Amino acid sequence: MRFWNSFRSGWSGVCSSTTVRCLFQPATALGALTIALLWIGIGYQLGLEREKLQALAFQDTRNLARVVEEHVVRSIQAPDHILRLARAGIASDPAGFDLHAFARIAVPEGGVALQLSLIGPDGFLRMSSQGPVTPPLDLSDRRHFQVHRDRDGDVPDISPPVLGRVSGRWSIQLSRSVRTAGGTFLGVLVASLDAGYFQEFYRSIDVGPGGSIVLVGTDGIVRAGSGTGALLAGRSVASWPSLHQSATVPQGSVIAPGPIDGRMRFVSYRAVTGLPLVVYASVAAADAFADNARYAKLYAAVAAGLTLIILIAVAFAVRQRLTLARTSAALMESEAVARRTSRELAATLDNISQGILMVDRDGRVVVVNGRAAQMLGVPEATLAERPSFRDVVAEMRRLGEFGARCELVNTDLSEYSHFPLPHDAVPAVFERTRPTGQTIEVSCVPTPDGGMVRTYTDITERRASERRIAYMALHDPLTGLANRTLFRSKLEHALDRQRSRGEPFAVISVDLDRFKQVNDFHGHPAGDELLRRVAHRLRDCLGEGDVAARLGGDEFAVLALRARDGETCDALVRRMLEAVTSEYRIDGQTVEIGASLGVALAPEDGDGIEALLHAADQAMYRVKAQGRNGVCWAGHAPRFTGTPRRDRIDAA
Predict the structure, then answer these.
(1) 540 and 645 inside one domain
(2) Domain span at 279
(3) Are 433 and 408 spatial neighbours (Cβ–Cβ below 8 Å)?
(4) What is the pLDDT of residues 543-589, one digit of tens each?
(5) Averaged over 11-26, what is the pLDDT?
(6) What is the spatial distance between Cα 549 and Cα 343, in angstroms, rounded to a whole number?
(7) CATH number of the domain that residue 236 is part of
(8) Which of 232, 412, 474, 486 could form a disulfide with 222 if both were Cys (CB 3.0 to 4.6 A apart)?
(9) Distance (Å, whole) CA 488 – CA 503
């Protein structure tokens, strides 16, 4: 009973008219509104940043998917072209065609293709690039044989990874049917592609700890992958909705859980042009939102501090109304709390990763943290004196922050240097590069009274990552030379100049002779080092504007823009041949190789990319057919230079 009387007496005091009037005063409503707006603003800002990170993640996965698609097309086009050449040979001479002899000429050593095979209409292996087939091997149970036997049409098939019964290695089977002109089934031609070749390439791409790359057939079977995708090789993912969608929408992006660990991922897919394959590239949502999570904790801490300040202020206002007699004491306590809060806020500002600078309507710096001083390059002691913003800019200019001749000044700087700012001033974001190379993102937000709040964010690493991704997409990771995509782009530009200005140029196809022996005798690390040395020597032979590229394996190409006549081009290719075939010292051993060069001139030997590349390749193949290690010119009257030689690999 005593407890109940105490509770009733306290509740009656709370509900008194005086207390109610104090609680519902304007200061209380303003505090509640400020807290609500503060948290809504933080939530909105975090949402915007999350959307930006999500868009960036999708952009990265789309770029990766496009790079992987181009790699798949490059890796499969050459073997498929070889299959079609072999099929043409069988059609022209079914009884006399020798697949083993054909493979020695047509299949480049060290490439993605492991072997060629011909399966007869009865399912038995008839011919192999590895040599005679003894005893007869029944392959009628293989998927790639059954697919072509049971359907019409000339569509290539790409099988899931299988263990070769002849080679004993895991491979992906690229196959085409062989039929007579009347449609009679004569068998299946198969190119066994090294499954590890795709795995190694995908592992070389950095997709983050939770990311993956997956190559899936349209039948739903995974061909190859990296990251968590490596665990899916050979498994069926036919239930993925995006796989069915790729038939009508060849590229897209989705958010989906991973099939192995269930983690949410940003996934982009691309249907491979002309092939029954789909490429998937993904990054884990947790990795993409890592920065957002850190900012959320930081913003929450700042907002909690500000909320506490507002609540304290409201509580003091209510207390002041309740007891006028304690006004003086309450005011002193409020000032003490404000000073303590100010110190806490200053400490908070000095420990965040962003720089913050606030300018009032008179152009005076009223708030600045240490991080902003670092990014501005101005001593903290100077900013502590609360100078004008113009003085800060002048000090930056004096210290060389805008370059020796002010070449690093942004046009946005002058627009936000005159205070008070106009009422129609809008927020702006721009980037500034410091003389040290550091890239700063500057966000300018006008305040209602004509002042300004600036935030400074160090985005150097983000820009460096974007440049690395762009470089990886256009350059060979082993040699640093241009890859096939960049080379074709440069060749297209050269053709445009030739058509508009009449500037001739040359395309040179370079293929190393006996490179496989280097790998077999010295090991693949020595072979990789040899490819880097060859790339270095090719670059040394070229002039300004010329482009050297590695197209794959031991195959290189050169775009010689300065070789505008036969004499200049002849001197260049002889210099290249001498440089590439000179002996190498690798790990204390002497290595000698040969090189076969094919030269095509524009516009004499072709007026398009494919025509010039084909002409140069055919000239190079004629060198190999006539003994290797020489130069052959395309055209109506080709000239052959160089002498056959037997390449050597000697131990030092």
Answers:
(1) yes
(2) 21-288
(3) yes
(4) 899 999 999 999 999 999 987 777 889 999 999 999 999 999 999 89
(5) 62
(6) 60
(7) 3.30.450.20
(8) 232
(9) 18
This prediction has a pTM of 0.43
Report angle CA 194, 196, 200 to the nearest 5 degrees.
130
Residue 496 to residue 649: CA distance in whole angstroms: 43
The whole-angstrom separation of Cα 493 and Cα 487 is: 10
Asked whether residue 136 is assigned to any structural domain, the reply reads yes
Strand order in the sheet with 649-650: 584-586, 589-591, 649-650
In this structure, the dihedral spanned by the alpha carbons of residues 91, 96, 97 and 100, taken in order and rounded to 10 degrees, is: 170
CA distances from residue 358 to 307, 362, 383, 389, 409 in whole angstroms, order as listed: 20, 11, 11, 10, 20
Q: Do 204 and 224 meet the contact criterion of CB atoms below 8 Å apart?
A: no
Instruction: Decide which of 426, 460, 494 is a domain's last residue.
Output: 460
Instruction: List the end-to-end C-alpha distance of the chain, in Å, as a whole number.
Output: 106
Q: What is the pLDDT of residue 410?
A: 59
Q: Is residue 295 in some structural domain?
A: no
> Which pLDDT value is given to residue 643?
47
**Are 456 and 486 in a shared domain?**
no
Unique residue bearing structure tokens 């890859």: 483
Q: Residue 583 has what DSSP assignment?
A: -
Cβ neighbours of 511 (radius 10 Å): 24
Task: Please enumerate in sequence order all residues whose Cβ is within 8 A of that of 243, keeping only pairs 6 or more positions apart, or say none.
Answer: 216, 218, 220, 237, 269, 278
Instruction: List all residues 6 or more positions away from 383 whose beta carbon is below 8 Å from its beta carbon.
Output: 365, 368, 372, 373, 376, 392
Residue tagged 């501090």 (tokens)? 305
Q: Answer yes or no: is 440 within a domain.
A: yes
Contact 645, 628 (CB under 8 A): yes
Question: 3-class secondary structure for 114-170?
Answer: EEEEEECCCCEEEEECCCCCCCCCECCCCHHHHHHHCCCCCCCEECCCEECCCCCCE
Residue 335 lies in a domain: no
How do residues 235-284 score in pLDDT, each as one tens digit?
888 888 888 788 788 889 888 887 777 788 889 999 988 888 999 988 88
Q: How far apart are CA 340 and CA 346, in angstroms?
A: 10
pLDDT by residue (tens digit) across 362-373?
A: 889 888 888 888
Same domain, 521 and 429: no
